[in-house]
Every structure is written in C-alpha cells, then in structure tokens.
Write a structure and sequence with these properties.
Length: 188
C-alpha cells in the first residue's frame, strides 16, 4: 500500500508568471502550519510541481524531515489557457462541463487527467509501501481524484481551501481509498 498526501499549495501572491508566483505572507504561515498537520506521520519522500508556490508550500515540511523535494512537471497545474482570461471561473466551469474540450487553448480535463493519472500510477509502482507527499495545485489534484471517484468534481474543487491536503491509499492496479485531511484552523 502506498500512501500519497496531495498538498494543494497555500495562498500565493499574484504574478503574471505562473511558475514564479510566490506564497503570500499568509501562505507562508500556512505552509509552516503543515508541520503540525503531519506531526507523527512518517514520510519517505517529497515530490512537487516545479511551480514556486507548490514548492514553497511543502518546503518547511521537507526541510524539517531532512528530505529533498523532487520537482516533476507532471504535478504542474493544468494549463487552462496560454494567455490571461477575462473570466477564469467561467472558463474553468466550461472545461469541467466539457471534459474533452478546451476552447481557450490549454489542456482539456481529459488530457490533464490522463497526464496526472499516468504519473501517479507509475509513482505507486515505483514506491510500494511508502508514504509520499506531493506539492501540487487544486485543479490538477481534483482531476486526478476524479479518475478514482467521480464525487471529486468541480464543486469539490471550488470548496477546497488553500492549502488543502488529500490522502490517498492505493495499491498498484487497485481502487484508491481517498480522504480529505482536516487542516488545523489555528489562527494565531
């Protein structure tokens, strides 16, 4: 059984450069709070999207556990459009309602789902009986979860806080057991 913890990045500061967007001050505090969330949970390795906000979210935990973070493109956010959109929410809603279409020039839900699912299937084969933390993004994380359970959908994505943690226990080639991990709501 491989245990995967998907960590949606914490709140970030807006930047037109998607890859370099850093965490905000609140996001940095939430990233440090993940140390409490994972207290007592053994972790064997860390993977992350190469986007700065995803790396910065899992970095305090990886540093505390003295593990490197392996950056992989497969955990990057789904490209919705190559340019800024006038109505991001309407575009996301459209692609969730039409999983095989993306009139905005980016990945369809189906393409993004296949990309992340293939990576996760390979990761589970590669790391049996390990616990892995994956720094990622909300949309691609929920698209993956939906490949295992259709109740993880657009409405679920909209309800996710930043950061959010979802745990998946899975054996290669089998159905996964998925849990949304409650985060500490300490507002110190």
């Amino acid at each position: 059984m491989t245990t995967l913890y998907f960590v949606r990045h914490a709140h970030s500061t807006y930047s037109p450069d998607e890859r370099a967007r850093p965490l905000s001050g609140a996001g940095q505090a939430d990233a440090r709070r993940l140390l409490e969330t994972f207290q007592g949970i053994p972790i064997d390795r860390f993977y992350s999207s190469p986007y700065r906000r995803a790396i910065e979210t899992v970095a305090p935990l990886a540093k505390a556990r003295q593990h490197p973070i392996i950056e992989v493109e497969e955990l990057r956010e789904r490209l919705l459009a190559p340019e800024a959109l006038d109505d991001f929410q309407a575009a996301v809603t459209y692609v969730w309602q039409h999983p095989n279409e993306n009139p905005y020039g980016g990945e369809t839900n189906k393409e993004a789902s296949q990309r992340i699912r293939q990576f996760i299937d390979e990761l589970v084969e590669k790391h049996p009986d390990e616990t892995v933390v994956l720094g990622t993004h909300g949309n691609i994380m929920v698209l993956l979860l939906e490949t295992f359970d259709p109740t993880f959908n657009h409405a679920f994505w909209k309800s996710l806080p930043m950061p959010a943690v979802c745990r998946m226990d899975v054996r290669a080639g089998e159905q996964a057991d998925i849990h949304v991990v409650p985060l500490l709501t300490n507002t110190k």
